[in-house]
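Can't attach files on this board, so I'm pasting raw text. These are the components:
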Amino acid sequence: MLPAGAWWSCGRICLNPVLEVRNLKKVYRGGEGPAVDNVSFSMARGEMIGVIGPSGAGKSTLLRCINRLVTPTAGHIFIEGEEMTGAPAVRVRGLRRRVGMVFQHHNLVARLTVMQNVMHGRLGYMSTLDGILGRYQEADKKQAVEILTQTGLGSFLYHRAGELSGGQRQRVGIVRALMQQPSILLCDEPIASLDPASAQVVMDLIRDVCHRSAIACIVNLHQVDAALRYSDRIIGMYRGGIVFDGPAAELKESVIEKIYNKPIKQLMIGDGIKGGIRDEIREGMHSGIREEPHDGIRDGIKEGLRDGQNG
Amino acid sequence: MGKMDNSRIKLASRESRRAAFVFLTVLVIVFVLSTGFTGFNPLEALLAQGEFWNFIAVDFIPPYMDKWEALLRALMQTLYMAIASAGMGAVLALSLALAGTPALCRVPGISSLVRGFASVLRNIPDLVWAFILVAAFGIGTIVGVLALTISTTGQLTRFFIETLDEAAGENMEPLLATGASMPPVVLQAVLPAALPGFVAWILYSVELNIRSSTILGMVGAGGIGLLLMGYIKQYNYAAASTTIIAVGVIVISVNLLTDCLRKIILT
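---
Top answer:
Structure tokens for the assembled complex are below.
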């Protein structure tokens, strides 16, 4: 069964979008020109968007405008229909709870245990006093243990985050974001500092939470091949603007050249892409890739989240 | 060959080499002039060594002490002074630093105010604080503890602000992104991340305070310095040398202890 909201049916126009960005613009003080310029798109529940573009194209700024870690200069952002832009601080905090974020350097507190780091995802739901004292709900802790176990981190609950490998840390970062029970997950270069094996585990996990739990994911990536392999839809950015927005299968070489402003021969983006990988992906859309995974972890996460919502 | 010399390849630009040369020249001139103005003569210092060693050998050696109890009491006083003032300084500095870190406290102007205040506390030497406080409180350990607390607060505030700033940089964004408000973010992420840094700085100020309190004692702030000054004034150099050795032992053992603690805490 596919999740409600149907990720596959969403093109540029969505009914009931989980996220809507309208004419977004961000100009940094002292910056050369706008970092993000007139960006508009919307996305459905459970949709996975890969954002590609050269360094400085505005990918990170775009993500940080969505949860208002960066205040946009102009434009509108709606999260499940509620306007984020211009909202007072208290409302912003309320909306941020629904938007999880995963960072390139996972940004865990290295000295704290995996459990302590993961529980930070609940702070947005707690009173200030409970937050200060770290009085987390037992039900939340139980859910954290469940999700960690399902993501293969069950034996690391009391390890310090600093002792884990890069891939494990990134998974902890994702679980922390999942503890928010978000509708949207923003991933800023989640695999940029990981080896290929860890990168695949992390990208698999992100795609699974996206499709299984119907969380809309926006993933900034430098790896065009990973973006093509994992995304339902690609957004290509160049100098703050969107130059491509469409299904992965439609990302032609000429478009990639436009996004990176370089001939394809000067881009290290995996030979497969230059050759026939898009054909594979096109086939995958119809057959292999979106099949129900057999992995216990994946189903487990879905159940874990559902249990958490009920409990 | 000559041709090759002409085309020697330089590793830095002509401007930066000239700037380095000018800087070094000025430095040497300032150093030579300053030494000249003090009237310090290296030869004289070498020639006068005989007298110095004579004084050490005849008056200081052998060390002798008959009042071990007084010595021990004074040593413990110094130790207590150092630890108490480091502790109180740390508490005061933490409150100041939380207000003075721009990333944590966004009230404009507060940061510069706190930094300025800490800088005043820090830049007036603790010896001067002790002089002022002796006038107010009389001779005794209270003066030592107060003077050291003041200077420790000044120093630690500055170090704590740097530590907090660094910890906030990495750890605040992800927690703010969960929708948490500032106080839980500081308590749950920034402070735990900053803790090893805090402990290292506090241990450092304990070390510093033990050394300072010896000198502060000489102006009446109690502890081992007061005892030492007494012996010197009585020309009891044998007892003074014992006291100096005792200070050395204490300083070295506290350093060894704090090094050990630092290793345990930081790993």
